[in-house]
Amino acid sequence: MRVVRFMGEDFRNFKRVEFSPHNNVNIIFGDNGSGKTSLLEALYLFGFGRSFRPGGFRPLINSQAEKFTLFIEAKSDSGDALNKFGMARYQGGDNQIRINGGGNTKLSELASYFPVQLFTPESVDVVYGGPSGRRQLIDWGVFHVEHSFFEVWSNYNKVLQHRNKLLKRNRSNYSLSQDKFWLDQLSKYGEKITLLRKQYLSNLRKYFLDTTKLFLPNVTLDVSLKLGWDQNKTFEEALTSALDSDLKYGHTTVGPHKADLTITADGVSAREYLSRGQMKVLVASLKLSQAQLLRETTGKSCIIIVDDLTSELDRENQKKFCAVLENSGSQVFLSTVSINNLTENFKERPEMFHVEQGILKRHIEK
Ligand SMILES: Nc1ncnc2c1ncn2[C@@H]1O[C@H](COP(=O)(O)OP(=O)(O)O)[C@@H](O)[C@H]1O
Ligand SMILES: [Mg+2]
């Protein structure tokens, strides 16, 4: 997907913003507080439906407005067909999503058009934080590569909720025959989710190892999936063994909802072994390899959003990162406070946009 036109109204500090980005690299620059991250946030919403900053959707609406609206015209990778996407959020909570003038659409449908990869100063937290961030990272990839994933994943989570309710309510008079229905369903959907995640990760691994060689040539890295239960058992067996503790805790203690991504460096846990700086390039490599895998397996290209690049990487890694971005075949949106020294990292001059107090203008160099 490539954005050819972007329009927004009453989004954060933008009363109105409109621009036509370049196919490849776009740089958005401006002082702190001018609106760079807000603009990237607006693009990100089309891929995820929520912001990458905390606070829910209300702070996204301009403080003097009742709603924000965003429009994107985008070209698909398969041809020149122009698709139109619109989104509005109201103070009251209403949420509208439209694709090509159709009726209100589900977020999952919109997201399927917009594979977005994001790099921010916080991206590195995915390795230091809990497993849910790492599951989301894998599942983003599986979702975009494998059409059946979303339904299986939704079904699994519905069943999980039902079963957890049963465990909580009926702790004293629990009956296995009642639970059997949920256990069968859980095990069916859970095995399927796990299979898709495993396949995805084994494909991703190759790209990841190649990309990290470029950024961390002296470290041997690896990634693998932790299933969320004892991997010597089938999920069904693990559910049976966990019955006592599930009853004790009142929820399902094993399963793909507990899965994790294990990252090792020279054979030991990467988060204890690598410096924070090395970790930043590791996370960047991981995300770049996800974009590459997507492109090579489905022909779909990502929209890559990079917030505050200059504060993130040292000069040497910035150069490498920019080169990979430029050659990725993706449309890139990159924000920075200052464009000094940045443009020379690209072979072709990127398109530049300057933001000042919620006003965006194309920057033409004199
Ligand atoms: N809902 C809102 N209404 C009006 N202004 C807002 C709203 N939310 C944030 N802002 C302001 O928008 C400005 C731009 O923020 P941000 O995009 O983070 O800037 P940058 O990334 O360029 O440093 C900030 O000054 C912030 O106070
Ligand atoms: Mg910012």
Automatic annotation (TrEMBL):
Question: In its keyword annotation, does this UniProt entry include Ubl conjugation?
Answer: no
Binding-site residues for ATP, renumbered to this chain:
30-37
Biological process annotations from GO: DNA replication; DNA synthesis involved in DNA repair; double-strand break repair; SOS response
Task: State the UniProt keywords alphabetically.
Answer: ATP-binding, Cytoplasm, DNA damage, DNA repair, DNA replication, DNA-binding, Nucleotide-binding, SOS response
Q: Can you give the residue ranges of the RecF/RecN/SMC N-terminal domain? A: 5-359
**GO molecular function of the protein, one example?**
single-stranded DNA binding
Where is the protein situated, by its record's location annotation?
Cytoplasm
GO CC, one annotated term: cytoplasm
What does the protein in this record do? The RecF protein is involved in DNA metabolism; it is required for DNA replication and normal SOS inducibility. RecF binds preferentially to single-stranded, linear DNA. It also seems to bind ATP.
Entry's family note: Belongs to the RecF family.
Annotated NCBIfam families: recf
The protein depicted here goes by the name DNA replication and repair protein RecF
The top of its lineage is: Bacteria, Pseudomonadati, Pseudomonadota, Gammaproteobacteria, Alteromonadales
